[in-house]
Amino acid sequence: MIEVKSELGAGTRGASLGPDALKIASLEYGSNFFGKFKRKEIRDSSRLLFKDPIRTHAKRIRGIVEVFQKLARSVHDEIELGHFPVVISGDHSSGGGSIAGVKMAFPEKRVGVIWIDAHADLHSPFTTPSGNVHGMPVAASLGIDNLPMAQNTLANDRTHEYWETLKNVGGISPKILPRDLVYIGVRDMEEPETEYIRLNNVKTIAVEELRSKKVKAIVDETLAYLAHCDVLYISFDVDSIDSSIIRGTGTPVTAGFSLREVTKLLEGLCKDPRLVCFEITEINPLLDENNETARKVFPVFKTAVNTIKKRLENIEKKRKKEEKKAKKAAEDMIRAGLLPKAKVN
Question: Do the beta carbons of residue 138 and residue 116 sit within 8 Å?
Fold first, then answer.
């Protein structure tokens, strides 16, 4: 579990409390779930929250560059050690750091991204209406500015310099291509985002489409669409869930998924053997009461992680079984005089 207690990219305060809110929710269920996993925390420049943003079109981007770099290195290192990183982040700007880490671990492979979110997060400093960097991680991963749809002129305040650094974390840009990306549940976008999606034929799956086709069909369709990708990353923003169900998130949107729908969706997607990193993000306990959002989302998160855990355990069991079988075959060959004793190992 990699916890990123940062809300530098958000427009409302409180998302940095999301990782702890999820852990507290697990205790309310009487669950020892989080005690089963090793934990790592990414430190951030949270002191920047107590200062007015210097840059209008990419607020606190200097601190976010630091989060990107630390998170990318951490995700990369865990994958290199043979571990599966589960990222629990405050705001969604961190998704770009997670993707960077996956790409750093697999520089020669195609990385597929499944972005389950009400928002496309495709803005750059040139197109953003808010300046909040949690609306930019996919653009950073794609390495785009979307200048044909520019709405803003950047001041000479190093915004462009930091944005270029963000796009190039890990020394690789772009990390993904439009054909490597699937949006599920996206329904609240601005014109620069919708135009980029249209021009680049980015695959989007609406909430209504999932309901009409059923969850299993959407899972199969998504994984088939990304069949050309070698490894996968899933980012789950809780605002993909309908705002009538959860309120504790920075930018809630109506007409979203039910808890059952998103649970089944994640359960199906997390069974894919190419999945190497999973992220949950944008829980903000200050925006609801009695930690309600985290309590509702914890069973969803637990199902996704347990699905990943079971898959990895089955792989390990199969490996040990094959190893034992190979060792027995070698011993049988030695007894039959077909293999010298020195060759057993």
Answer: no
Q: Which two tokens stand for residue 204?
A: 């989007």
**Domain ranges (residues) in the chain:** 2-315
Write out the two tokens for 254.
């109506």
Size of the chain in residues:
345
Question: Which stretch of 49-53, 238-242, 296-300 has the lowest confidence by average pLDDT?
Answer: 49-53
**What's the pLDDT tens digit per position in 281-322?**
999 999 999 999 999 999 999 999 999 999 999 999 998 888
Which residue is listed with tokens 């809110």? 21
Name which of 224, 259, 220, 219 is nearest 242 in CA terms. Answer: 259
Q: Which residues of 78-102 are buried (b: 16+ CB within 10 A; e: fewer)?
A: bbeeeebbbbbbbbbbbbbbbbbbb
Task: Give SS3 for 306.
Answer: helix
Burial of 192 (0-12, 13-18, 19+ CB in 10 A): buried
Per-residue confidence band for 342, with pLDDT thresholds at 50, 70 and 90: low
Tokens 């960097």 identify what position? 133
Quick: pLDDT tens for 123-179.
999 999 999 999 999 999 999 999 999 999 999 889 999 999 999 999 999 999 999
**CA-based torsion, 334, 338, 342, 344: positive or negative:** negative
- The superfamily in CATH containing domain 2-315 is Ureohydrolase domain (3.40.800.10)
For residue 199, report the phi and psi dihedrals to the nearest 5 degrees.
-70, -30
SS3 157: coil
Give residue 35's Cα distance to chain centre.
22
Token pair 């090793």: residue:
38
Burial of 225 (0-12, 13-18, 19+ CB in 10 A): middle
Apex 136 CA angle, 133 and 140, nearest 5:
120
* Concatenated DSSP letters of 242-301: -TTT---SSS--SS-B-HHHHHHHHHHHTT-TTEEEEEEE---GGGSSTTHHHHHHHHHH
Cα separation, 96 vs 133, whole angstroms: 10
